[in-house]
Records
---
Amino acid sequence: MKLAHVLSLLAGVGLLVGVVSFVSVEVKAAEKRLTAPKKADAPVAATADHTEAPYCTPQFKSVLQRVVNACGLVGEESRRGCQPVDVKQFATISDEDFNALFAPLEQRGAIILFDDAGDKLDDGAKKLIMEKWEDRRLARYFFIVSRASKSGAAGMNKALSHKRANSVNFWLADQSKDPDLDKKVGMLWLGEEFAQLPKDYCDKWTNSRPGKPCNADAINRSAFISWVDCRL
Amino acid sequence: MSSRSRLPGVLGVIAATMGLFFSAFSTHDYALHLDRQLHATNCSFVPGLTGPESGDNACKAAMYSSYSAIFRDKYWGGVPISLFAMGAYAFFLALAVYLLTAGNSASKRSWQAYGLASLTPIIASAVMFTISVTKLGQFCKLCVGLYVASGILAASGVWALVAAGGKRGAGAVGGSATDTIPDAGPPVPAGYPLHAYAMPEPARSPLGPSSLVPTGSWLAPLSLFPMLGVFAVAPALVYTSSLPDYRPMLLSCGKIVDLNEKTGALVKLKTLRPVQPALTFEDPLCPTCKAFHKRLQTEEIFDRLDLTVAIFPLDSECNPMLDRPFHPGSCQLAKAFLCGDKIGKAREILDWSYDNQDELRDAGKAGKEIIRAKIREKFPDVDACIDDKETKKRLDRVLQFAVTNKIPISTPQMFLGETRLCEEDTDLGLRYVMGQLAPQVFQP
């Protein structure tokens, strides 16, 4: 066999072996990386979640957490609402501080006003409730915090506060037809002894009776409603 | 005895080395991606001297295109065609070494066989060049390197053919039991070792110095082509036999929690022959979404999907999950898409967004009003709807759907039924994963 034949044969065999070895090494290296990826090779994207607004302070969240747990917003229980006594137990802060927790919701929320000793929603209330409900964005919880003024008997006011919260909730259920409503809406009904709203809430907050007289009693015959942009 | 021109051999060695070099880099880049991760790719005329480039480039586009590999539905990523090139150029390198070293002792048939065989890579290059022009619209530098290599190889082949033909080239090519030495001399008995046959008169080649060329037998061309085939196929065989088993990984990316969006916020796109329910999360200004969308179309998968789109703009203007706009302007397009759904133009708007993505991205960066003007110009009938409160609410509900299902804030994402396609399988592995999880998509 001539030198040229030998050389080319050697070159051919050598090149073929080299090429297939190269391929094999490359594929095996990829397999090794595949089965034992470096941590840096596997970045994890954030997961879509509910919004977390700056007002979600630890104090605010502790109130939120209590309502969420006690009012049946998590788990399979269908319990709804909290007794005022519960609030008394966990809200170990002053009335002013308690109200201040909700102050940042001024733009997001609204105050539904009721007649004296009444729990019926008027047209303005119904419209405002749905407006706020539909402006959910990416919030997880919808809060209804109802109140009663100090005029009248405490027991009656407590019951009235409860009825007002229910009025809002029933209207939402009726209009939204949302089967998961009880997993979204948390209710607090506060008796007259709890955190009365100061009169300036008449001006600062959107209410369901704009242009109508509003005083310290009127603003507390109410239900505060808002989506809450906090995660727990 | 004077020698033949060695230039065809020299050119052959240069071309084959070039081809081997570029195809090896291309194969390396492809194999790198077999770990299902993203990697920088080489895209240079001097790969190795310049580092690999991260981000988009023409080589990456070529690699991710459906033309870079075959058998994609059988093997994850398919079998890259660069493997065949690598094997073929290894063969041509060995053959060119033979021509170079054999000189006059190489038979005429060997030269002719080399000449003919060396034309095959340029045929492949011509096909790939046409695809680059007509389908990809850009040229990958590694591919250009291979085109040039195949061109030089073809030139050396033509030279070899002409040189082999000599004055009686046409007659000599006929080959028979009485093959003749060109120009003069007695007939050569069939089967006689040609290189050992006495050469009476040197023949003059039109291109090289005079040489006395043994004609040789047809065995050379007849054996060269199968050998070329063996060289070309061997790397692919080794590649496919070494590939890891990807099947267990295909289902490793979870399932959707609740496919049922009760308010009708998602958009159902019309496709020609839907056979596989699918849900995608897409951002009209996301380049990866565009590539994915186009890939589904070129792979002829798109029109077999019963497709629902959850429009998912990564723009903080309307998406509170983000603290800054990744794709400014995409909220406007997302709303236009939702509005388009009402008048049967959703698919048209999505296609338009992808087709004009570069321009729209620039417009989005320039300002909300600029991109809005572009939408208005193209789709005046959705303009009023974009600002409608209902449109915003619908988009919020789409985002809520993402939240309910704990969707990663990343696009594109695809669910086949309830099964989430891993992001790693939405490019090179797309055809394979569809073949595994939704084979009906490829059935006629």
Note: Chain A has two domains: 3-41, 58-228.
---
Amino acid sequence: MRKWLLLSAIILATACERDDLCLEKPLEGAVVRFHNAISGRPAAVDSVAVYYEGENLIPATLTDSLLLPLPPDRDTAQYVFEKTGTPASNPDTVRFFYVRKDTFISKACGFWMTYRQLQAQLMTDSDNWIQQITVTRPDITDDTLAHIRIYH
Amino acid sequence: MTHWRTYVFIINLFPVLSAFAQPQQDTTGRNAGFSSWIQETHLRLGYDLGKKIYSKLNGGNMDAAYLNLGYRNHILELFAGKEQMPFVHPSYTFVTTGTYYKIGYAYNFYENWGHMHNEITLGLRYGNAGFSYDLQRIAYDAPTPEMPAYVWAGHRFYSGLHAGWIEVGATLKAEIFHGFYLDLFLSGKRLLGGSKPDGFDLLYVPGFFRTNVSGFGFGLGYGVSYRFGY
């Protein structure tokens, strides 16, 4: 009986590896901050919704900052920032260009996509609620400071 | 008539001289010299069947053979192998291609009866491998449900990789029939050093198998061998 317990203990110990679990989470996206076009100070938008490929990515929220996820399968991403409210909602299209590169994290986590050299382009239409869009930090390496500033 | 004594003398020299031609006899009564020395050595040629079957069941190929040179209960173990094995992880897949060798010393602790030559050995070995990785698939999760997941497929090579390790190995060799043996292997090993590929990690080493953070590994296997010897 004891020999069997010892054998099973050895088998179990060798089967479990500490590096089998991925405990880290990838970055959620680029940090977008909204600013007042005149004063330049952070200013919340009442309310903003983001659409990607026709689908609602971020529902309408009253906020001055957003986390914008970037797609891993293409080098250009087009988003529609819609300012909701009365009298009608105002959609503005923004196109982002970036360079994708994968980084190996660990045996358990594998590879994660990193986005660098970010560029933003505002598509002008008849009625832009976004005045200007600038990239403050082109390489997305953390999610603390703003990468993109939208002036409205 | 005077030459007769000379002839007898010469004729009597022959049996005396021929006594020197006989091999020396030691106290045990066995023949000493090279002929007895060779009777205590043996040569064993083996093939790792376990690795072959495992590799074929897992979409790869492993060829491994071993040569043992034995003198009495001391054994010089030599191993060599060639591998091409896929490493499949949910997030990525790569194929390792390479060769390895192992060299070691083992002692047979089993006391055989009669003319049997079964073995229970314990030994220490050093192994070294040269190999390359071919990264063929990377799967990226969709960041949100609205964005599709992305799978990259292609070939990304990490070449010129090397790794070394030491191994404590125990084997059990039992004769099945006339000179053919079934060998069972058990080993505990530790990776000593290895070139980490740029932008990747040393995840698989031919001969060592999968690596992990601790550097330790454990092996279990079997093979068939033929023993040449007395």
Note: The interface with chain B takes residues 14, 17-19, 26, 28-29, 52-53, 55-57, 69-73, 102-104, 106-107, 109-113 of chain A (CB under 8 Å).
